[in-house]
Amino acid sequence: MLSNKTAIVTGGTRGIGRAIVMKLSQMGANVVISYRSNEKMAQELVEEITSQGKKAIAVKGDVQNFQDAKVLMDKTLDEFGSIDILVNNAGITKDTLILRMTEDDFDSVIGTNLKGTFNCIKHAAKPMLKAKKGRIINMASVIGLIGNPGQANYAASKAGIIGLTKSVAKEFASRGITVNAVAPGFIASDMTDKLSEEQKSAIQKNIPAGNLGSVEDVASLVGYLASDESKYITGQVINVDGGMVV
Ligand code: NAP
Description:
Elements lengths: L5 E5 L4 H12 L3 E6 L3 H12 L5 E5 L5 H15 L4 E4 L14 H29 L2 E6 L3 H4 L5 H21 L4 E8 L5 H4 L3 H9 L9 H12 L10 E4 L6
Parallel strand pairs: 1-2, 1-4, 2-3, 4-5, 5-6, 6-7
Helix pairs in contact: 1-9, 3-4, 4-6
The protein binds NADP nicotinamide-adenine-dinucleotide phosphate (NAP).
């Protein structure tokens, strides 16, 4: 389904990003796994994929850094010759109430989540526009739609990603490139493992489906949005949240 296509997944070594890497690889894409720190985890994932007869490389870098984002795109083009799918998944939280939130708490979350998404789109745009095809999938969050106490920085970054998605979708629609955002609710991952059992059970009460989602639930939607079947869907924000925000 995605054979001869190349997909970049930022923050692809663990959590939702890893599930997306596995999904796109299973669908036949060559995958480029971007990661910031854990080289061992990245290499093990590359080995797992290549042992299945599929192609993968890992590229180290910080998406906040404009030059690192360029290197990610350049290495992808050198290795595979095209960028067909870009999944801007890398993201962090630094949760605290606004009165306690430091300037660094704010800047680092906006820098990674929002500016990181801009940086990668910016450097992927030229080759995608030249090829007149592509899929850009940005990881937002339901928190960007509804806000959350203690997450002003994170909510602002994810709301920003939604505005970025809609604008770039309009700019690229006539060039065969779709740009969509995926908004997960609460998904079991390292990010949500940080929550206490009390917090988790309080959250669960607000999810009509009654349980946290899995990383595969998010990866399934990304697989669809990356495929040719979604060619007439652009500028959308699609929630994967068990009915939490409707
Ligand atoms: P996670 O388990 O904490 O993994 C985050 C990934 O992003 C890691 O691979 C991490 O790499 C990478 N990363 C962080 N900062 C980076 C940077 N500056 N440059 C490059 N890579 C960076 O997170 P997750 O739960 O899978 O979340 C993935 C995405 O989904 C995020 O955008 C998050 O906001 C969003 N999301 C998650 C949930 C949820 O419930 N889990 C809900 C809504 C939205 P290192 O290991 O190298 O740090």
